[in-house]
Design a protein that fits this description.
Layout: E1 2-3, E2 8-9, H1 16-39, H2 43-50, H3 54-62, H4 75-85, H5 89-98
Antiparallel strand pairs: 1-2
Helix pairs in contact: 1-3, 1-5, 2-3, 2-4
Length: 110
């Protein structure tokens, strides 16, 4: 992070990398949310099953909204969630390109 005086920003803010990270974060949050709901867990229950803090789990899920900042969970957190909910990385990584609608509700072209 660079200190720009009053605000801390990511070094890649606005770059292609930032866009990719935002889409991956949004896709992951979307798939985590869908998996949790399909199992009938509350966020607190799901966090307990995955072995992570409930606030962290909530931030990951909220990243599915375009108005929410993207999240950067640790590799350990990703593994815990993948193990607990059988969420294979290829599903949400591929979906980051095509399966998650944009803010206007439209899907990007394939």
């Amino acid at each position: 992070m660079h200190n720009t005086g009053t605000t801390l920003t990511r070094p890649s803010a606005g770059s292609d990398n930032d866009v990719i990270c935002a889409r991956l974060s949004r896709s992951f949050g979307f798939h985590v949310h869908e998996a949790r709901q399909s199992l009938g867990y509350s966020q607190e229950e799901a966090a307990h099953v995955a072995g992570i803090a409930a606030p962290a789990f909530g931030r990951i899920e909220r990243a599915r909204f375009t108005h929410t900042a993207w999240v950067n969970p640790t590799l350990e957190t990703l593994v815990r969630i993948h193990t607990a909910f059988d969420l294979h990385p290829y599903r949400w990584i591929r979906a980051a390109r095509t399966d998650i609608p944009a803010a206007d509700g439209k899907f990007p072209p394939r």
